[in-house]
């Protein structure tokens, strides 16, 4: 059976060696990168099942690497950061990270999060197999192809933006709370601020508007969350 491959990006060789011990013990294959530039080279030439990414690195920091990955890959990203403020965590999640862990941390907790992220990614892939194309006025959402089109022209959404938009569309007309969206998209293990949902919604709305969509399908339910309301249901 082929081993699941984890890319660990961190300039601290002691931490990389420690993570190698734990990941190999759990049956994972591990590839190392000492900085962002090396990480991009590895990602261009090999597929990975998960990326463990440090924020504070020379030359190219983890934020930049995360953004690059999300523009090209849907691989889960677990960020490691010594920056424990809510603002920093929301920034990483807003760029497309799936989870974060604040240094110092227990290696066993990291392994638990690695397993959880890979399980979640596998569950999303399986659930998408039976999905169909959602068709709304001037807007289509193809779950299989993970593609959103406005007037038949594709727009670029990050992995989390697509998951969030698709979840709302599949529950059209129903208000979903921030907590429900966090649970479905980020998972039970998520311990961050629910404002990360607001940040993703803001980004989605801007992209839909820039693409020329004449209405805003995501409506705010003040104090609760959001709902998808297509044009033909709007007054």
TrEMBL record:
<dbReference type="GO" id="GO:0006355">
    <property type="term" value="P:regulation of DNA-templated transcription"/>
</dbReference>
<dbReference type="InterPro" id="IPR001789">
    <property type="entry name" value="Sig_transdc_resp-reg_receiver"/>
</dbReference>
<dbReference type="Pfam" id="PF00072">
    <property type="entry name" value="Response_reg"/>
</dbReference>
<keyword id="KW-0238">DNA-binding</keyword>
<keyword id="KW-0902">Two-component regulatory system</keyword>
<dbReference type="GO" id="GO:0032993">
    <property type="term" value="C:protein-DNA complex"/>
</dbReference>
<dbReference type="GO" id="GO:0000976">
    <property type="term" value="F:transcription cis-regulatory region binding"/>
</dbReference>
<dbReference type="InterPro" id="IPR001867">
    <property type="entry name" value="OmpR/PhoB-type_DNA-bd"/>
</dbReference>
<protein>
    <submittedName>
        <fullName>DNA-binding response regulator</fullName>
    </submittedName>
</protein>
<dbReference type="InterPro" id="IPR011006">
    <property type="entry name" value="CheY-like_superfamily"/>
</dbReference>
<dbReference type="InterPro" id="IPR039420">
    <property type="entry name" value="WalR-like"/>
</dbReference>
<dbReference type="InterPro" id="IPR036388">
    <property type="entry name" value="WH-like_DNA-bd_sf"/>
</dbReference>
<dbReference type="Pfam" id="PF00486">
    <property type="entry name" value="Trans_reg_C"/>
</dbReference>
<dbReference type="InterPro" id="IPR016032">
    <property type="entry name" value="Sig_transdc_resp-reg_C-effctor"/>
</dbReference>
<feature type="DNA-binding region" description="OmpR/PhoB-type">
    <location>
        <begin position="131"/>
        <end position="230"/>
    </location>
</feature>
<feature type="domain" description="Response regulatory">
    <location>
        <begin position="5"/>
        <end position="118"/>
    </location>
</feature>
<dbReference type="GO" id="GO:0000156">
    <property type="term" value="F:phosphorelay response regulator activity"/>
</dbReference>
<keyword id="KW-0804">Transcription</keyword>
<keyword id="KW-0805">Transcription regulation</keyword>
<feature type="domain" description="OmpR/PhoB-type">
    <location>
        <begin position="131"/>
        <end position="230"/>
    </location>
</feature>
<dbReference type="GO" id="GO:0005829">
    <property type="term" value="C:cytosol"/>
</dbReference>
<feature type="modified residue" description="4-aspartylphosphate">
    <location>
        <position position="54"/>
    </location>
</feature>
<keyword id="KW-0597">Phosphoprotein</keyword>
């Amino acid at each position: 059976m082929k081993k699941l491959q984890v890319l660990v990006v961190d300039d601290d060789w002691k931490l990389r060696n420690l993570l190698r011990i734990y990941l190999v013990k759990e049956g994972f294959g591990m590839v190392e990168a000492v900085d962002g530039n090396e990480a991009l080279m590895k990602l261009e030439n090999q597929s990975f099942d998960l990326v463990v990414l440090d924020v504070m690195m020379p030359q190219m920091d983890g934020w930049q690497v995360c953004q690059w990955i999300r523009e090209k890959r849907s691989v889960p990203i677990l960020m490691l950061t010594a920056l424990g403020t809510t603002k920093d965590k929301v920034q990483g999640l807003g760029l497309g990270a799936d989870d974060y862990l604040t240094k110092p941390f227990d290696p066993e907790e990291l392994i638990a999060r690695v397993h959880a992220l890979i399980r979640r990614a596998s569950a999303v892939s399986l659930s998408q197999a039976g999905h169909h194309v959602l068709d709304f006025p001037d807007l289509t959402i193809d779950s299989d192809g993970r593609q959103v089109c406005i007037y038949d022209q594709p727009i670029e959404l990050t992995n989390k933006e697509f998951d969030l938009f698709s979840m709302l569309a599949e529950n059209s007309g129903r208000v979903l709370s921030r907590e429900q969206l966090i649970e479905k998209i980020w998972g039970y293990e998520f311990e961050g601020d629910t404002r990360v949902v607001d940040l993703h919604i803001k980004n989605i709305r801007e992209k839909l508007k820039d693409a020329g969509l004449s209405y805003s399908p995501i409506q705010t339910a003040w104090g609760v969350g959001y709902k998808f309301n297509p044009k033909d249901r709007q007054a």
